[in-house]
Amino acid sequence: MIAQVYYHKLYLSELQRDIPSGLSPEDSISIANEYINSWIKEQLILHEAEKNLSIKEKNFDKQLDNYRNTLLVNKYYEKLTSDTAVFKVSQKEMN
Question: How far apart (Å, rounded) are the C-alpha atoms in residues 33 and 42?
Answer without folding.
Answer: 14
